[in-house]
Design goal:
The protein is α+β, with helices and mostly antiparallel strands. Among the domains are: 62 residues, Arc Repressor Mutant, subunit A (Orthogonal Bundle); 101 residues, Glutaredoxin. It is 35% helix and 7% strand. It has a five-stranded mixed β-sheet. A hairpin with a 2-residue loop joins strand 4 and strand 5. Helix 1 packs antiparallel against helix 2. The relative contact order is 0.09. It binds FE2/S2 (inorganic) cluster. FE2/S2 (inorganic) cluster binds next to helix 5.
Length: 284
């Protein structure tokens, strides 16, 4: 008697996900193959492919992750690990405009926290939440390397520099009303899905968009101008032990004196007469 043989798959479990409609699948597959062909190793195309599927649904769905895994020969676990690591990939549907308020240290002290609080109240949403009309998703974001223009708000990754609670409120009102708003620099604003397609590596066909992007603002270039000698070189703090005008070392005046935090403190190891440690707390 012959035993029935059963096929056993040792592959990773498949992510349960509905398939794309046939037309969407055909279109995305053609685009994905174009992206993959740019890389010597297909798995290197994962980041742009995640943007591509995000351009379809506005977020990286389970269907999108399964699609990327299939096209790149990866497991869904590998794709999920990448998609959940980077904050530029949304995990659920969001608004047409992703409004990110930088609340990292510099922006926060320059007004980022106040802007974020004002927008939460004005829009009636919390962090990573979307307005009922589906227009705006609000989030607080970490430093966007635009600290020289703090506090910074980004909409679909375009910069709105030197914001205030009032200007940011006006900005979201204009977006909700469907009016055109101009970023402080870079390409004109487009919808979240359109932005995702550009990030996937497809050309931005809008007139003037490519020419407008990439320019650094004056605040970003001050260091470069200083290095080239195109700006006067003011030194506001003299190096320790030098006079402010580069003369001989001198005893620091009371106003230049080192902070007590900079001075070496006596410890039980360095002060054998007091093995239990300093005899008085700082400030006593
Ligand atoms: S701290 Fe906000 S852009 Fe750097």
């Amino acid at each position: 008697m012959t035993e029935a043989r059963q096929e056993v798959s040792l592959g990773m479990p498949q992510l349960p996900a509905p398939a794309y409609p046939a037309e969407v699948r055909a279109r995305l597959e053609a685009d994905a193959k174009e992206v993959i062909a740019r890389y010597p190793d297909s798995r290197s195309a994962l980041l742009p492919l995640l943007h591509l599927v995000q351009s379809e649904e506005g977020y990286v769905s389970r269907t999108g992750m399964a699609f990327c895994a299939e096209l790149l020969g990866l497991t869904t676990a590998e794709v999920t690990a990448v998609a959940t690591f980077y904050t530029m990939y949304r995990r659920r549907a969001g608004g047409d405009y992703q409004v990110g308020v930088c609340t990292n240290t510099l922006c926060a002290v320059m007004g980022g926290d106040a802007i974020f609080d004002r927008l939460k109240e004005h829009l009636g949403v919390g962090n990573d939440e979307t307005t009922e009309d589906g227009k705006i998703t609000l989030e607080h974001i970490e430093c966007n390397a635009a600290c020289d223009f703090a506090p910074v708000v980004m909409v679909n990754w375009e910069f709105f520099d030197n914001q205030t609670p009032e200007s940011a409120t006006h900005l979201v009102d204009e977006l909700i009303a469907g009016r055109t708003v101009e970023p402080t620099r870079g390409a004109p604003l487009c919808s979240y899905k359109e932005t995702a397609r550009i990030l996937a590596g497809f050309p931005d066909e809008r007139p003037g968009a490519v020419e407008a992007s990439g320019g650094a603002g004056p605040a970003s270039l001050i260091g470069l101008r200083l290095a080239k000698g195109e700006e006067p070189h003011p030194r506001v703090v003299a190096p320790r032990g030098e006079s402010p005008r580069g003369g001989r070392p001198h005893d620091p005046s009371p106003s230049e004196h080192l902070s007590s935090h900079d001075a070496p403190q006596q410890t039980s190891a360095s002060d054998p007469d007091h093995p239990s440690g300093p005899t008085a707390e700082e400030g006593e």
